[in-house]
Specification:
Blueprint (H helix, E strand, L loop, with lengths): L1 H9 L32 E5 L4 E5 L4 E6 L5 E5 L8 E8 L5 H9 L9 E11 L2 E11 L5 E14 L2 E11 L4 H12 L3 E2 L2 H20 L3 H5 L4 E9 L8 E14 L19 E14 L4 E12 L5 E11 L2 E11 L10 E8 L4 E8 L7 H6 L10 E9 L6 E11 L7 E7 L2 E2 L2 E6 L2 E6 L5 E5 L1 H10 L6
Antiparallel strand pairs: 1-2, 1-22, 2-10, 3-4, 4-5, 5-9, 6-7, 7-8, 8-9, 11-12, 11-25, 12-13, 13-14, 14-15, 15-16, 16-17, 17-18, 19-20, 20-21, 21-23, 23-24, 24-25
Length: 475
């Protein structure tokens, strides 16, 4: 239960007639004209495993993905009735060229020449490599027409085997006139991202993270205390339907001794080490599990950090409530400071569930650079506003049932033409689509998650009003 809650909360931190014609724009072997290209402001996709970066149309979402051997991503537009689906993968092949591979795919699966119609095909150059693009219409066995599009680009040899980047689009004839230029514009943004390039960027961004962390002073951290915000987490309704309320969170930042992490403890009883003052970030969240059955999950997380960032500690209590029935899971964690006797800092986590008598410890050597847990919740408040910044670092990852150390990449840039607003884009594992958070002077304003969920800063009164109108319980 704990990892499910943290996965959700950590995300807080985006014709009746056939229009296909064979005229100059859509005809086979016709080079694209400048008017075919559409302006593209969208989602920046990254995958080291597939080996590319590209800008996808705005609102795109990832519907499935696979890591490890034969990695792929399936992406579609974010509307209720998707106009297109795109599969991106790195494929080993003995085909000598990108064009040869596309022609083989056109005729695969017992297709007859009479069942497909080539709508458009073109040789092009991407990253100095000879790529190939094609669109075909195919009549399926049930009589329906579909349109397939392919972009194929050689990636070089991996383990002695030639690999190609393959992007496969599926749409329907009615949508093709809009989908084709939009996705070709996206394909035109493809940049290969091989192991050497990814490693070079990761090293540079890791050094940026180290420099940023080294520059954080006690004075800067203390300036953020007495901060308190409420955030609404919801999925916008479509076609006039109401929004779906997912959760709310209350964040606060204060200066406090480490002993505050122990519930019900008295300051006069703190041990010497518990008396040390530092930054304390508190996160109280309520998640809707099943409103009709009155099932909610409450999470109280407290994240303490020494002013010099040398060590930290935290607690997280997650309680599942169904009317009067409750069940609580607990997590205790700390990161040790480096000393002459123990130069390797360690991260220790203990998960506990008293109901089933579970006490599971985990331990890691602290990787570098490491982002303290208190800062992962509040990072946008501390980032510099003099110039853009890209960082990569290790962080504590709750997305699996067992906690683990993950990798996070951040891009920090001015937010368009709006004064005093900055955009923080975050990729987990340096892959997929980013979470996009817009920050004002006082912190987060609004965040768009890749799955379409919205996080926005609001007031307690507004959250209570919205939840009451939706028939939900805020306490």
């Amino acid at each position: 239960m704990l990892h499910l809650v943290m996965t959700i909360i950590v995300g807080l931190l985006t014709q009746p007639t056939d229009p296909l014609q064979t005229g100059p724009q859509g005809g086979a072997n016709t080079p694209p004209q400048q008017s075919d290209r559409v302006p593209l402001e969208g989602e920046h996709f990254i995958s080291n495993e597939v080996g590319i970066t590209m800008t996808l149309p705005k609102g795109s979402i990832i519907t499935s993905q696979k890591t490890g051997p034969s990695p792929f991503f399936v992406i579609r537009d974010g509307s209720r009735t998707p106009a297109w689906s795109l599969r991106l993968e790195s494929v080993p092949s003995s085909d000598p060229t990108a064009e040869a591979m596309i022609r083989r795919m056109m005729l695969s699966g017992d297709k007859k020449d009479s069942t497909i119609e080539i709508l458009r095909e073109q040789s092009l150059t991407i990253n100095g490599e000879p790529a190939y693009l094609a669109w075909v219409r195919e009549r399926l066995e049930d009589g329906q027409n579909v349109v397939f599009g392919w972009i194929v680009l050689p990636q070089g040899r991996l383990m002695g085997q030639l690999h190609y980047l393959v992007g496969t689009v599926i749409t329907i004839p009615d949508r093709y006139p809009l989908v084709q230029p939009e996705l070709e514009a996206a394909m035109g943004t493809i940049q290969l991202r091989g192991p050497e390039k990814a490693g070079e960027l990761a090293y540079r961004e890791a050094e940026n993270a180290k420099t940023f962390l080294a520059g954080l002073s006690e004075e800067t951290l203390k300036a953020s205390t007495n901060h308190r915000t409420c955030r609404r987490i919801y999925r916008p309704g479509q076609d006039g339907e109401p929004d779906e309320e997912i959760a709310y969170s209350v964040f606060s930042i204060e200066a406090a001794p480490m002993g505050t992490l122990q519930p019900g403890s008295f300051s006069e009883l703190y041990r010497h080490d518990e008396q040390e003052e530092g930054l304390l970030v508190k996160v109280h969240s309520r998640i809707v599990v099943d409103a009709d059955r009155e099932i909610y999950i409450d999470m109280l997380g407290q994240y303490w950090l020494a002013w010099d960032l040398s060590h930290e500690a935290w607690t997280a209590f997650v309680t599942r409530r169904q009317r009067a029935a409750t069940r609580t899971e607990k997590e205790y964690g700390f990161r040790t400071k480096q000393t002459l006797g123990d130069p390797r800092s360690r991260i220790v986590v203990i998960k506990q569930d008293d109901e089933i008598n579970l006490r599971q410890p985990y331990e890691w050597v602290t990787p570098s650079p490491w982002m303290p847990r208190a800062l992962t919740w509040t990072l946008g408040m501390f980032l510099p506003r003099e110039e853009p910044l890209s960082m990569s670092y290790a962080f504590f990852d709750h997305r699996q049932s067992d906690p683990q150390i993950g990798t996070r990449r951040d891009d920090w840039t001015p937010s368009g033409s709006t004064a005093n607003q900055w955009l923080l884009q975050t990729w987990m594992d340096d892959a997929g689509l980013p979470t996009k958070g817009v920050y004002g002077i006082d912190g987060l304003l609004r965040q768009n998650n890749p799955d379409g969920v919205i996080v926005e800063t609001t007031t307690p009164d507004r959250i209570e009003l919205i939840w009451n109108q939706a028939g939900l319980k805020t306490s």
